[in-house]
Design a protein that fits this description.
The structure is a single chain. This protein is α+β, with helices and mostly antiparallel strands. Helix content is 31%, strand content 30%. The chain is built from ten helices and 24 strands. Strands 4, 6, 10, 11, 12, 21 and 22 form a seven-stranded antiparallel sheet that branches. Helix 3 runs antiparallel to helix 6 and helix 4 (67-76) packs across helix 5. The two termini are 65 Å apart. Keywords: Cytochrome c-type biogenesis, Membrane, Transmembrane, Transmembrane helix. It is found in: Membrane. Residues 511-550 are annotated as: Disordered.
């Protein structure tokens, strides 16, 4: 009895194991993952995510484009900026999550396009299918009496750029292969566009620099404020050009409702393409970059750089030169900047500067009413003490930590501004500061992108492919000749019925008749895009002439 029960239990266990579904296994899961990744639905989802992921790059300032605005964002909203920076919102196009979308989209398009290209190549070599027996059942059909022969019908259809084959008493013609060709061209161009962007990121570089009027720049890694090279870029691969900013002019609307809005920015540069070449003057404008053998230098922004002279408590000149300021108000260009004087004696000095381009009194306060430097002044907030520059902690040149510093004299919230040439004596014998003049600075981005031209060509080809896929129809026409009776039928393989094919069919019918057009009897039956023919309706056709759809 026990042996029988054991046998029954063993048999039941075996049957239970056989009834369990078999797992996919490693290879099965990999195959499923590849098919899912290369499906059209996945490609569309990734393309949507690619476009959606680019949106933050246009909303938030990017370090690769304008690091000054990023610094201003951190100054205005430090907590928000800190959280945004954790998600790479200021470096969207170099972030890991954007790179993941980019690579997955590249793989998805590659896996989707290449099999379709092979299938389309085979389709291009396949002959049109033979004529169905009953052409009157096709969506477009007509019949007429005439002396048309099979050879004449084939010749007239070939003149209309149809691909033609003939039988004993019939002609089969087809055209519109450019529809699928355009579809493939569009997807291949997208693939090429992604590849060109990736190649540009690998072999190209970008750099940002701020240059004050009268100062120069050489295209070396050390000269950049921020340099972002591709993985295959070295210091020796940079184009050895240099330039000096001779002048900068900003033009604004002087009156009316749009008063203060900028009209034009223009910088005059003295450029040397190589260290031994002759200098040439170049006018640099927004969207009109300097081009030196494919390396482009763009004008991004500008601001004021008032010049000061600081004399310390021992009578020595501790600082002299321009100080770039960041504009807090773009309408009036009221700007703020910082001077740090670590070499001052007996104590280090620091200054907060508020620069007003066009100064007017507003009660007990002073404000700027115009972005142009019509009446430039500077309000000075002096401090002394240890600036902390020897602590090893990095500091921003646009910020001054006043917690450990001592104000010099009675600190006013809105001190009397200095005009150009005025000097302010510092309290406690700490020295003096003189407002000596006004210069302007420009922010520039230098970029070298070898994938720029291929990306432009790929984008143009994508547009051409999209136009072809949307305008060209795949259509077929058959002609059957029996004595003087000629029957013509046609259909389109375009989804949605193929708008405009009825007119084209009427024109084709006119050319076949060689006379005035006859009225086609189109749409006498519901459209059948399976070519309206079962196997019993057709004459025997050799396998080489059959279409994959039959």
């Amino acid at each position: 009895m026990t042996k029988k029960n054991d046998t029954t239990e063993a048999t039941g266990a075996t049957e239970e194991r056989e009834a369990r579904p078999v797992g996919l296994g490693v290879v099965g899961w990999l195959r499923w993952g590849w098919r899912t990744l290369t499906s059209m639905r996945t490609a569309l989802i990734l393309l949507f995510l690619f476009a959606l992921g680019s949106v933050p790059g246009s909303i938030y300032p990017q370090r690769s484009v304008d690091p000054g605005r990023v610094a201003q964002y951190f100054q205005n909203s430090p907590t928000e900026a800190k959280w945004l920076d954790r998600f790479w919102m200021f470096d969207v196009f170099t972030s890991p999550w954007f790179a993941a979308i980019y690579l997955l989209l590249f793989l998805s398009l590659a896996g989707c396009v290449f099999p379709r290209a092979v299938a389309h190549f085979k389709e291009l070599r396949r002959k049109p299918p033979a004529a169905p027996r009953n052409l009157h059942r096709l969506p477009q059909n007509a019949a007429f009496d005439g002396d048309l022969t099979v050879e004449e019908a084939a010749a007239r259809l070939r003149r209309d750029r149809f691909r033609v084959i003939t039988g004993p008493d019939w002609v089969a013609a087809e055209k519109g292969y450019l529809r699928e060709t355009g579809n493939l061209l569009f997807h291949v161009s997208l693939l090429a566009l992604l590849f060109a962007v990736g190649a540009g990121a690998l072999f190209g570089y970008r750099g940002n620099v701020l240059v004050v009027e009268g100062e120069g720049f050489s295209n070396t890694v050390a000269a950049y404020d921020r340099f972002m090279p591709g993985q295959q870029v070295s210091a020796e691969s940079l184009q050895p050009f240099s330039f000096t900013v001779k002048d900068f002019q900003a033009t604004y609307i002087a009156s009316g409702e749009k008063r203060g809005q900028p009209l034009d920015y223009s910088a005059t540069l003295s450029v040397q393409d190589t260290p031994t070449s002759r200098p040439r003057d170049v006018e640099l404008k927004v969207n009109e970059p300097l081009d030196v053998n494919g390396t482009l230098t763009y004008l991004l922004g500008h601001g004021y750089a008032p010049t000061f002279k600081v004399v310390d408590g021992k009578g020595n000149t501790a600082f002299e030169g321009p100080v770039p300021c960041l504009a807090g108000d773009q309408m009036t260009y009221t700007s703020e900047c910082v001077i740090k004087v670590p070499d001052a004696q007996p104590d280090q000095l620091g200054f907060l500067i508020r620069f007003l381009p066009t100064t007017v009194p507003n009660g007990k306060a002073w404000v700027s009413i115009f972005p142009g430097a019509a009446n430039p002044t500077a309000q000075i907030f002096p401090f002394s003490g240890d600036l902390g520059l020897k602590s090893g902690q990095p500091q921003s040149v646009y910020q001054l930590d006043t917690k450990s510093l001592k104000p010099l004299g009675k600190m006013s919230a809105d001190p009397t501004p200095l005009n150009v040439g005025d000097t302010k004596e510092l309290a406690d014998g700490a020295g003096s500061i003189q407002f000596t003049g006004v210069k302007e600075w420009i922010s520039l981005q230098t970029a070298y992108d070898p994938g720029r031209l291929p990306a432009l060509i790929a984008a143009a080809l994508a547009v051409i492919g999209l136009v072809l896929s949307l305008t060209v129809q795949r259509r077929r026409v058959w002609v059957r000749v029996k004595g003087r009776q000629v029957t013509v039928g046609g259909l389109t393989r375009t989804e949605g019925g193929g708008a405009g094919f009825a007119e084209e069919f009427a024109e084709t019918l006119t050319k076949l008749r060689g006379a005035a057009p006859a009225e086609p009897s189109g749409h006498s039956q519901p459209e059948d895009r399976s070519e309206d023919a079962s196997a019993s309706d057709r004459e025997p056709v050799s396998p080489s002439t059959r279409s994959s759809e039959e």
